[in-house]
Design brief:
CATH superfamily: ACT domain
CATH topology: Alpha-Beta Plaits
CATH class: Alpha Beta
Distance between the termini: 24 Å
Number of helices: 3
Strand order of the largest sheet: 2-3-1-4
Structural class: alpha+beta
Pfam family, one: DUF493
Number of strands: 4
Organism: Flavobacterium dankookense
Protein name: DUF493 family protein
């Protein structure tokens, strides 16, 4: 069951509900999922994202922008179901400056 936090606004909650439904309808689970994030280039923020996927067997690639201000993080990981995918998005959404793609 998908749990939303009290701080989540209605628009964000609706987005995650739609994402969960789309993942449920287009994939069989468990399945590999590719997360993509952009964070300000800060070793602590990058480490926070990487730590969220620690012990999951994730393949993580980072690429710094040309100016060095931002770092893109691609994470390929086996997820159990759409709820687990959405829960990871919610978990990392607390990292200051993160953008989920």
């Amino acid at each position: 069951m998908l749990l939303f936090f009290n701080w989540m606004d209605k628009k964000t909650e609706e987005f995650y509900i739609r994402l969960r439904e789309e993942l449920n309808n287009t994939s069989t689970w468990p399945n590999e999922y590719l997360y993509k994030f952009i964070v300000p280039t800060d070793a602590k923020k990058i480490e926070e994202v990487e730590n969220a996927f620690d012990n999951l067997g994730a393949v993580i690639q980072t690429t710094q922008s040309k100016t060095g201000k931002y770092t893109s993080i691609s994470i390929n990981v086996m997820m159990e179901n759409p709820d687990s995918v959405v829960e990871k998005y919610i978990e990392v959404s607390t990292i200051e400056g993160i953008i989920s793609l």
